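Thread title: Can someone regenerate the structure for this chain?

I was given the following input by a collaborator and told the matching structure tokens would be attached. They weren't. Posting the sequence so someone can regenerate them.
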Amino acid sequence: MQKETITILGCGWLGLPLAEALIKDGYAVKGSTTREDRLEQLRDAGIEPYLLALDTEVNGEEITDFLQSDVLVVNIPPERRDDIVEYHIAQFSSLIDALGQSPVRSVLFVSSTSVYAPLNREVTEEDAGTPETLAGEALLHVEEMLMQERGFQTTVVRFGGLVGYDRSPEKYLGSMKEIANPDQPMNLIHRDDCVKIISEIIRLQQWGEVFNACSPAHPLRKEYYSKAAEAVGVAHPPLGASDEPAAFKLVNSDKLVNALNYNFIHPDLPV
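Best answer:
Regenerated them for you:
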């Protein structure tokens, strides 16, 4: 029996290895990039490539054909701009219009734990609201837009800070003057787990859900960067001083673990 066709909007640092994993699992995969020089890379990976940009209108070739698919994975983080809330809403309004003319019935939206304010406690999926950043506010608006649609079902995955491969802590040690907020716990997830979690949601047809996805380990910032410095044999940056403890949140991913019967590939986030 032929598996579903999956379209990935945004085949970058996370989207490309996700596409490769899905192809290995037997799915047909379409994928987009905003850079013409990356089309060949996508094609070589077995992806049907499209040159597309999600602006206030969907710009690019053959958007109708791109969305001839069963599942759409949207992996487009908010840009850094002052009007990102309004702009991100406009971006997704145009995408939702295009989806209304497509056969897509399942959407997986890659969101972020930035939708949570630092409440100085553990947070679950029900605690989203009053984000600290404009990017978090933009994501929360888009989540609500997608979840309210009735033409397709949306599952939202709120990933913690993405780490792994070229996003390792050692990379940032040289530019760190100090470890700011050294006693603040971190909410992180390895790219390998991101890929596996999205794949499992699709395989198990877990639609209409909102999931947190963070490693169960929540290292303090001083522990995380000190361990990284030891791993490469350099002195760790000095600890930053603070008159008051930094506000924090501990992202709880129990709902995802239970729904997918999921075991993290990198539960302790090795550096």
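The first helix runs from residue 15 to 24.
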